[in-house]
Amino acid sequence: MSWAFLRDLLSGVNKYSTGIGRIWVAVVFMFRLLVYIAVAENIWKHEHDEFECNIKQPGCENVCFDHFFPVSHIRLWALQLIMVSTPSLLVVFHVAYRENREKHHNQKLYRKPGKIDGGLLCTYLISLILKTGVEIVFLVLFYKLYNGFKIPHLVKCDIKPCPNTVDCYISKPTEKMIFLYFLVAPSCLCIILNLSELSYLIFKYSIKCYLKRHMKKQQ
């Protein structure tokens, strides 16, 4: 899979972000995207082939694997990265709309087309809320699908066509669990960063509105 578009998108949004937003971009790019491409993708690359059960009953191993791993870890993370980064397109499109509007009218309509204020502020806040919501949804989904953030060494399966309860073994469970935590932790950090930036922008805008009202009253 090519991640060039996602990389360019994050780089573009970085120009219009606050300091906290730039930290979020760095975390997504360095601790999630690069780790996913360089390490995690290879660890889970042959997860189905390396899943073994102590019985050779036709179909038993496939059914057990599908039961305990209904969705591939690696595909779920890839989908999460894409979905988390997608709301940033709202900001990019809004800035592009401002710039095109200025070109169309052939005059300066905004002090700084990329400055977070007015309608762009609302778009930015919406993107933060969406990113936070997506992160939480995927963490809950992952927890529900795999019964927690853990990789067991052994799973017992008694689903048909298995004739009885069979033992199935997952390859490199310790290594997988370490990188599982390494990918879940940055996701939690991104939620904290998004909420912090959301609070910061709302607080900053509230202070700005209060000062404007105060100045009007004095005048």
Automatic annotation (TrEMBL):
Family of the protein in this entry: Belongs to the connexin family.
Domain (Connexin N-terminal) ranges: 42-75
Membrane spanning stretches: 21-39, 77-97, 118-143, 178-203
Entry-linked InterPro entries: Connexin, Connexin_CCC, Connexin_CS, Connexin_N, Connexin_N_sf
Membrane topology term: Multi-pass membrane protein
Keywords: Cell junction, Cell membrane, Gap junction, Membrane, Transmembrane, Transmembrane helix
Gene name tied to this protein: Gjb7
Pfam short name (any one): Connexin
PROSITE patterns found in the cross-reference section: CONNEXINS_2 (PS00408)
A molecular-function term among this protein's GO annotations: gap junction channel activity
Tagged with keyword Disulfide bond: no
Main localization, broad class: other
Subunit-level organization: A connexon is composed of a hexamer of connexins.
Main function: One gap junction consists of a cluster of closely packed pairs of transmembrane channels, the connexons, through which materials of low MW diffuse from one cell to a neighboring cell.
Domain named Connexin cysteine-rich: residues: 134-201
GO cellular component: connexin complex
Keyword Metal-binding: no
Protein's recorded name: Gap junction protein
Intracellular or extracellular location(s): Cell junction, Gap junction; Cell membrane
One BP term from GO: cell-cell signaling
